[in-house]
Design brief:
Elements: E1 4-9, H1 30-37, E2 40-43, H2 45-48, H3 53-62, E3 68-72, H4 75-80, H5 87-95, E4 105-111, H6 120-129, H7 134-141, E5 164-167, H8 176-185, E6 188-193, E7 208-213, H9 226-240, E8 263-268, H10 275-286
Parallel strand pairs: 1-2, 1-8, 2-3, 3-4, 4-5, 5-6, 6-7, 7-8
Helix pairs in contact: 5-7, 6-8, 9-10
């Protein structure tokens, strides 16, 4: 059975206190609370810096059985190094403790900056490096270097599969060759709604679909009206039965591989005015 997981991007936002979070809730219990409202949350701290193994273990302990984290890959790799000389940095990330999430580790999100252009050879080399399982991540993590300041976490209890998704923001990626590469490596194309600021296409490239809703009218700030949520619910129902919704723009004319079902992950990132948790709850009710 395909699973649909709808949640929020991050959980620690000052304006949410007393609105989404109860007024008397201690800040240290915010993840505990949020993870009981939604089945999945994007973990964003890993984007800004390598997190500690004990942090990942704490996040694992604070969330219920069946919960799933999407984990954002480091901007050091995507924004600063821009996929150049990333062998050790990628190893450092996978040795940093992310595997301590065990079965709660969901898809890895790799977001690229607006000025990052599509270079097929560079991008394929990156996709080829991404581990498809936890044991593959352990093997990769063994290549860590001295920039990993803590003891590496390279323990695996069960060899769970690993999923990866790519979010692009430059028009050069509007190229069928890019979609073909993602399909070759089974990597998801992030379907991103960014208030018209960045490319918005609906190609399906993997056995799952990854959606990020940043706001349809104003980036990170506007909420979704009932009609817009109903439209996303329509798409989700099609994706999870293995179909591709009609009427939406696609980069490639080639249809995705046929499947009887697909898992769907949806994250609301319109957090500025406490819209994300409300919209996530509304979409969950619709699907």
């Amino acid at each position: 059975m395909a699973k649909t997981r709808i949640g929020i991007s991050g959980w620690r936002y000052t304006p949410w206190r007393g609105v989404f979070y109860p007024k008397d809730l201690a800040q240290r219990r915010e993840l505990e609370f949020a993870s009981r409202q939604f089945p999945t949350i994007e973990l964003n701290g890993s984007f800004y810096s390598l997190q500690r193994p004990e942090s990942y273990q704490a996040w694992y302990d604070e969330t219920p059985k069946g919960f799933v984290f999407a984990v954002k890959g480091p901007r050091f790799i995507t924004h600063m190094l821009r996929l150049k000389n990333i062998d050790a940095p990628l190893a450092n990330f996978f040795a940093s403790g992310v595997l301590a999430l065990r079965e709660k580790l969901g898809p890895m999100l790799w977001q690229f900056p607006p000025n990052f252009r599509f270079e097929p050879a560079t991008f394929e080399a990156f996709l080829a490096m991404l581990p498809s399982s936890m044991e593959a991540a352990v093997r990769l993590g063994r290549g860590h270097d001295a920039h990993l300041k803590r003891e590496p976490w390279l323990q695996v209890e069960t060899n769970h599969r690993m999923r990866h998704a790519v979010e692009i923001r430059h028009e050069s990626f509007v190229d069928p060759a890019f979609i073909a590469l993602l399909r070759k490596y089974g990597v998801g194309f992030v379907i991103a709604d960014t208030a018209g600021r960045f490319p918005r296409y609906f190609d399906v490239t993997a056995p799952f679909v990854y959606v990020r809703l940043h706001g349809d009218k104003k980036l990170y700030a506007s909420g979704y009206r009932d009609a817009a949520l109903a439209d996303w619910a329509r798409r989700i129902r099609a994706w999870r039965r293995g179909a591709q919704p009609s009427g939406d723009p696609r980069i490639s004319r080639v249809a995705p591989a046929k499947r009887s079902s697909r898992d769907v992950y949806v994250y609301f990132d319109n957090d500025m005015k406490v819209k994300a948790p409300r919209d996530a709850r509304s979409l969950i009710a619709l699907v």
